[in-house]
Amino acid sequence: MNYYELWNIMARWKKEFTVKEFASTFVSPDHNKVLFDMARKGLVQRLGWGRYRVVPQEEYVKTKTDVAKAYELVRKAELPYIFTGPDAVFLWTKGGYNADRFFGFYPINLKIKRKDLPKWRRFFSSTRQRFVVGGGPARETLFGLFYLLQVAERLEKASVSGFSVEPLQNTVKFCQDNVYTYEPALEMLDEMYDLGLGVKYRESSA
Predict the structure, then answer these.
(1) How far is the C-alpha of 163 from the C-alpha of 77, rounded, in Å?
(2) How far apart are CA 91 and CA 105, in angstroms?
(3) What are phi and psi of 14, to 5 degrees?
(4) Residue 49 belongs to what domain range?
(5) What is the distance between the alpha carbons of residues 91 and 177, in angstroms, rounded to a whole number?
(6) Does residue 142 form part of some domain?
(7) Which tens digits make up the pLDDT trace of 56-109?
(8) Are residues 82 and 133 in the same domain?
(9) pLDDT value at position 137?
């Protein structure tokens, strides 16, 4: 049985579940790895320590489609930018790790130059995209997909899959500073880029 077949079965099982419940229901030599891999593919979402939700098919398809368009739109602004925070993790892991976001609440974290903020405001307004400047009050209750703008005097950047992204070392530090959520991402980055971090993620089934 592949992960997508298991996903279809789980969708008829429970909307939310614990690792212990999963282990007692589905036979696997390593249930932690199965959930880890399924989370990487976007089939389940980690809610907290030892807790997951099954991502509905409609949400999975719509999120994949809308997010891809949202990333491409940024390049059309023809202004300096870098994807940062969770989005830097998402890009450096080649889409393999995406935490604390789902279709109902999906901020895209973008760092821009302070002097370009008026241009970005005009760009997002002209393309009818919702955005908020980090640290400022939101004009509305935010849901769905929107851009979270962080301003900086200068941008350190690397290129990943044709996008400007926070450098790898900065992204690793972000994961280390938020290790409770991003420890699995650290293991992925360690394996992908041979960083020598020695991270080994295992989640308890207790």
Answers:
(1) 13
(2) 19
(3) -150, 150
(4) 3-55
(5) 18
(6) yes
(7) 877 876 777 688 899 999 999 999 999 999 999 999 999 888 887 766 678 999
(8) yes
(9) 52
